[in-house]
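Can't paste images in this forum, so I'm doing it all in text. The chain is below; anyone willing to post the predicted structure tokens underneath?
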Amino acid sequence: MKPIWRKMLGTGLSLILFAVSAWLLHNELRAYHIRDILHAFDAIAGAHLWAAAGLTILSYAVMTGYDVLAMRYIRHPLSYSKIGLASFSLEGGARKGLRYTQRKLEKEGCRFEVMPPESVAAHLDELKNISDAWLTTKSTREKGFSLGFFQPDYIRRCPVALMIRNERIEAFANLWTGAQLEELSLDLMRFLPQAPDGVMEYLFTCLMLWGKAQGYRYFNLGMAPFSGLENRALAPLWNRLGAFVFRYGEHFYNFQGLRQYKEKFDPQWRPRYLASPGGLALPQIFANLATLISGGMKGVVAK
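Text version of the structure:
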């Protein structure tokens, strides 16, 4: 609670500013008499006065509309997770699960390695086989647009994180390295069906420790689609629809599982906002995006 003197100071400053404004206004208008002002108004055509009044009202309505839009779209957050690498470690009770997974896989002969872009071309066939096996196991096909997909020319441009067991690559992820060591992230992650349980967690953990050692500030875990949307009676219709999809849309995408999986790394969730025209434009935009990502309408309804 603020001290009384701070409240009094704020009130006093407001009164002083009001008094100064009134004084300045008085100085500007004291050379004019009210009769002069009324005569000036009489000299202006009535249509011009009505037009000026209408435009003034319209300008205030537009500003109010901007405020309404801001308040409307501020309720459309998309959860976005980042981890500060300077404080990331495997120490403490909260990291017990991550420590267990790392030690377990290391005992099974797994090791972590980051392959530089100039070395990727020699291993593209092996990485493609892993990617194809992953797609077959998941009974899905490649997505696109905003989701990572296997494209040789793209993969060879990035560093690639590897999980190697018995001198064989069993999992990989291509890396995005931000400028000036600001941020590290990954795009495409694939692994063989016979890879040990916890391989993704192992890769994430090793990547964060590697990024910390390299001096990166953040590790970007990306978004958790549809999480964080309000699902209450007075929430906007599209918010409630998004919350419904998050809860019941597991057939199409692992919405809840993705959020829960990222939670184990204790990220800092930050909102990202979506602004769009109102009405029926929003579902059309979502449908267009889903079609782009899935490579056609058939991909929208099938994995």
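The beta strands are 77-84, 110-115, 160-165, 168-177, 183-191, 218-224, 268-273. The chain has two domains: 4-73, 80-301.
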